[in-house]
């Protein structure tokens, strides 16, 4: 299979995996929500806060090293494998030992055993970290997708059966362990490489700066991503945090899902052509154009139908979310583009620059959260959007673009058609929404506006953005 076909296949299989897994997880959540109590989900939620934080350190960026490095020796693979296994065992031991302290902090006795059982997850997953990275490096996303789908289906089915048998919160705990175990076993079965005892610590030191800078960025980004929730919950209360969280997830969830698929495939692709800036620029701009074509209309549509969307699916008590969705609109459009620059830093081997920019931008974002608190959740959202758009947007793309000699004007040339098509669609839909909101129930208005918006956007794109539209259609075939 040619390089181009491998890339197209990677996008297809990654998309299939993402859709099937999210669909299965959503269906499982609906079933388990009827079988388990809210306290069961609450206890697991606390446990996941701890395990998700420790998971940041799971491989210290060594998976990215495997994908980024063009020529990787077998001894380095072995060294990284044993390093990951050792670190997985260490993470298991640490969580096992601190579990009693965490249980006492939250005054929840169940947490002790749950955390200790979940600690095994780090050891299990560490045995297949490099195998997953090797499949991604070789663009074998069809095998990865099959592994992920099988593991998700089996673990979800078992969790529902256990819930029916009365296992309570343990049905959720075992679901996590089962999906990790099955994934590890299947990754070993689908990867030709197997470890031996030839390793070299000197080679690991050579990639230390790359991996540690990436880990540092991930850790810092974790705190930035949770700073607004912490501040709002602490200062404005849990109700305000609930409104803010729902708005953030509704507006940014489509963006995150799409960018996850894109970044997963493009990182190994761009790493293979990291020394050819011309091909790098072409591939990157092609992908950014596709992202904009898909995300821009989704973001604009959510902002236009915010009122019927919230009132229909969530009810009157969630009305404050409507204004937040409108405020988050420009931020979401910006982030749909800026989230892609991380793969430039990683593919070009400049995670040190990525960390430096992340620290600077993160500090400004935290200041914006603190500044906006005095005006409530809308104030936080406005301050965040203002900082993202007027202060951080230009440097956030200009710095990585210098690494590939890419002009911002070239980016604008790629994006303007999707932007104009989205604006035109939203202008028409907003007029129709105003009329329907005074004459029809919100549910009926929503049922009319969404398909109509899709039709108008596709029609406009056919007229002014045909090339990118055809690229997406060909990708989906």
UniProtKB/TrEMBL annotation:
<feature type="transmembrane region" description="Helical">
    <location>
        <begin position="321"/>
        <end position="345"/>
    </location>
</feature>
<keyword id="KW-0812">Transmembrane</keyword>
<dbReference type="GO" id="GO:0005886">
    <property type="term" value="C:plasma membrane"/>
</dbReference>
<protein>
    <submittedName>
        <fullName>Flippase</fullName>
    </submittedName>
</protein>
<feature type="transmembrane region" description="Helical">
    <location>
        <begin position="147"/>
        <end position="166"/>
    </location>
</feature>
<feature type="transmembrane region" description="Helical">
    <location>
        <begin position="357"/>
        <end position="377"/>
    </location>
</feature>
<keyword id="KW-0472">Membrane</keyword>
<keyword id="KW-1133">Transmembrane helix</keyword>
<feature type="transmembrane region" description="Helical">
    <location>
        <begin position="79"/>
        <end position="102"/>
    </location>
</feature>
<feature type="transmembrane region" description="Helical">
    <location>
        <begin position="414"/>
        <end position="432"/>
    </location>
</feature>
<feature type="transmembrane region" description="Helical">
    <location>
        <begin position="114"/>
        <end position="135"/>
    </location>
</feature>
<comment type="similarity">
    <text>Belongs to the polysaccharide synthase family.</text>
</comment>
<feature type="transmembrane region" description="Helical">
    <location>
        <begin position="282"/>
        <end position="306"/>
    </location>
</feature>
<feature type="transmembrane region" description="Helical">
    <location>
        <begin position="43"/>
        <end position="67"/>
    </location>
</feature>
<keyword id="KW-1003">Cell membrane</keyword>
<feature type="transmembrane region" description="Helical">
    <location>
        <begin position="172"/>
        <end position="189"/>
    </location>
</feature>
<dbReference type="Pfam" id="PF13440">
    <property type="entry name" value="Polysacc_synt_3"/>
</dbReference>
<feature type="transmembrane region" description="Helical">
    <location>
        <begin position="444"/>
        <end position="464"/>
    </location>
</feature>
<feature type="transmembrane region" description="Helical">
    <location>
        <begin position="383"/>
        <end position="402"/>
    </location>
</feature>
<dbReference type="InterPro" id="IPR050833">
    <property type="entry name" value="Poly_Biosynth_Transport"/>
</dbReference>
